[in-house]
Amino acid sequence: MFVTDRRLWAASVGLLAALFAASGAIQAEDTKAQHSAVKRADKKDKFWVDRHHRFLNRAKKGEVEVLFLGDSITQGWEGSGKEVWTKHFEPLKSANFGIGGDRTQHVLWRITEGKELEGISPKAAVLMIGTNNMGSNSAEEIADGVKAIVAELRHQKPHMKVLVLGVFPRSAKASDKVRDKIKEVNTSIAKLDDGKNVKYLDIGDKFLEPDGSLSKDIMPDYLHLSKKGYQIWADAVGPTLEDMLKK
């Protein structure tokens, strides 16, 4: 009788341990799922709000075949890249939904609670986001944020193709620490390419010198593109984007 009780006690302890372990795993997963890069967030400053409302008004007009989503580097199509945009992307009925300073969580909010996709049915979206998360999130978390955006785009617009661009290189030297983090993010988000609806393209090397450094001629502040940089971007994605629009 004593042996039987002891076995029952051991089995009970084992079961409880397994339950606690499972509970801990679930809690760890929940914590991971709630990190800042995937938690939808808006901003309250006037510049951001005004630009968001501008996008809503643009969406009401319709006729958006190609949607560019991102941060200040995407917004820059209206600045240093304006001439290049007019030549290459206006004929494709493109819309620029880039906002300076945005991180993955802000783009997530804009396409969900912010309803920026309502009223439009683009054939393709070009996504380039994540560089502003570099200082506050791990590479894994940044990749999670990009993946969450792509999942939401696919959910809302299942017939829309998504071109995911690798995070562009930044910082002057190839040996600068942030370069390794960018590579880690890009290695992860490259797996989003499904060969059908989502295409991944890393054009970062096209901005670099042979030794891996960035020149001010391409990125004057080692982050934002010059007109020459935007021309490189347009030339690099043009064939892929045109192919996506045909399918």
Strand arrangement within the widest β-sheet reads: 2-1-3-4-5
Which regions have little confidence, pLDDT < 50, spanning 5+ residues?
15-32
SSE ordering: HHEHHEHEHEHEH
Percent of residues in helices: 40-55%
Structural class: alpha/beta
Beta fraction: 5-15%
CATH topology of the largest domain: Rossmann fold
End-to-end Cα distance? 73 Å
Total helices: the number is 8
Q: Sheet bearing the most strands, described?
A: 5 strands, parallel
Explained architecture:
By secondary structure, this protein is of the alpha/beta class. The chain folds into two domains: 1-34; 40-246, 3-Layer(aba) Sandwich (Rossmann fold). Helices cover 48% and strands 10% of the residues. The chain has helices at 2-33, 46-61, 72-75, 82-88, 104-111, 139-156, 177-189, 227-246, and strands spanning 66-70, 94-98, 124-128, 161-165, 198-201. Helix 5 (104-111) runs parallel beside helix 6 (139-156) and helix 6 runs parallel beside helix 7 (177-189).
SSE diagram, text form:
Layout: H1 2-33, H2 46-61, E1 66-70, H3 72-75, H4 82-88, E2 94-98, H5 104-111, E3 124-128, H6 139-156, E4 161-165, H7 177-189, E5 198-201, H8 227-246
Parallel strand pairs: 1-2, 1-3, 3-4, 4-5
Structure, briefly:
With 247 residues, the chain is an alpha/beta fold.
Give keywords:
single chain, 247 residues, alpha/beta, Rossmann fold, 2 domains, 10% strand, globular
